[in-house]
Design brief:
Shape: globular
Bound molecules: flavin-adenine dinucleotide
Distance between the termini: 55 Å
Number of helices: 9
Strand content: 25-35%
Number of strands: 17
Strand order of the largest sheet: 7-11-6-1-4-5-12
């Protein structure tokens, strides 16, 4: 028996989160296969150390995979695997529970530690508690918080095997897609994240204030839910319990209060810097470095200093 990892293929190749998921998959000491959806080129570049086989399912619909189709495919492969695992991303957290339901097994979501063959640690209550979950023995289906695992190295000699996917589900289809991040690093795996809150006041000011700082640092831009709900930033930028969980080396929180639902998504950051005019704001207690200042003075000043460094 072996472990199957569902790969996430980014524009730049295999996502860092997939290499981290492969490392997590090695926990069971079983052979690890990688399931790659989409073009042959994607499969050819999906070589990760420690992977036995790359299973490649190529069909036009996998250019923009739908959870229904991915669940069907995983379901057709499940009989050969002890564990089906993926990084906790939007596709995996939609597709894997469907497979778990079809097999009448538990779905372990966003495991942060693997304790045994069927025992896991996962955050609950917005990351304020860690639950230890013993799953029933047998097929294990789980997503992992990728940032908690070292990435397996790129490269390897895995055999690439073309597989045939079941017929398309057909109940939904993608009618369009637009990227919100542009040239910036992917939020979930960025080394530096600059996030803004409601206090930015408008979409224009959000961009005008944070983009120069993010450009200077090569950072991804994040936002609080309040900023997203106010229309200052797109949904994809939301960081937190109901957004993306980030774990950068440096997280700069600009004009955001640090509500529990937001900090649930940033706790694994190595260094947190907060800029807020209220010294009592919760983010100031969590931050490694707190600057009590008006963000509209402090951020341009910071950018100016970074330009002269
Ligand atoms: P505020 O809380 O209003 O904070 C604004 C901050 O800006 C204040 O601290 C203020 O002192 C500071 N400020 C104001 N003006 C300036 C200035 N000129 N210079 C410097 N500082 C200034 N939120 C998330 O972020 N992510 C989530 O995933 C998320 N999920 C949620 C899920 C649920 C079920 C619920 C109920 C809520 C969720 N929220 C989430 C919302 C969360 O509870 C907060 O409402 C939100 O994070 C607050 O956003 P904010 O910090 O931008 O705004």
């Amino acid at each position: 028996m072996s472990v199957l990892v569902l790969a996430d293929i980014a524009a730049t190749g295999v996502a860092l989160a997939t290499r981290q998921a492969v490392r997590a998959a090695q926990h069971w000491g079983l052979p690890v296969d990688l399931l790659v959806l989409g073009s042959t080129e994607a499969a050819a570049h999906a070589q990760i150390a420690g992977v036995r086989r790359v299973l490649h399912a190529d069909a036009p619909r996998f250019a923009q995979p739908q959870a229904e189709d991915v669940a069907r495919l995983l379901n057709s492969l499940a009989g050969d695997y002890t564990v089906i695992l993926a990084a906790h991303g939007s596709l995996a957290r939609n597709a894997l529970p469907r497979v778990a339901a079809l097999h009448d097994v538990g779905m372990i979501s966003e495991a942060v530690a693997l304790l045994g063959p069927n025992s896991y640690q996962r955050p609950i209550y917005a990351g304020n508690l860690l639950a230890t979950v013993d799953n029933r023995p047998g097929l294990q289906i789980l997503t992992v918080r990728a940032s908690r695992f070292e990435a397996a190295a790129q490269g390897g000699q895995a055999e690439c095997v073309a597989i045939t996917a079941p017929a398309a589900d057909g109940r939904s289809r993608v009618t369009g897609q637009k990227t919100a991040g542009g040239e910036r690093p992917e939020l979930g795996s960025a080394r530096v994240v600059v996030s803004g809150g409601r206090s930015l006041g408008s979409a224009e000011r959000f961009h005008a204030c944070l983009a120069p700082l993010a450009d200077r640092l090569g950072a991804a831009i994040g936002a609080t839910r309040a900023a997203v709900d106010s229309g200052y930033a797109p949904n994809e930028w939301q960081v937190g319990q109901t957004g993306t969980v980030v774990a950068p080396d440096l997280y700069i929180a600009v004009g955001l209060s640090g509500a529990l639902q937001h900090t649930a998504g940033i706790k694994d950051s190595r260094v947190i810097v907060a800029i807020n005019q209220d010294p009592e704001a919760p983010i100031m207690q969590l931050a490694d470095y707190s600057l009590v200042a008006d963000l509209f003075d402090a951020v341009p000043e910071l950018v100016r200093h970074l330009h002269t460094e």
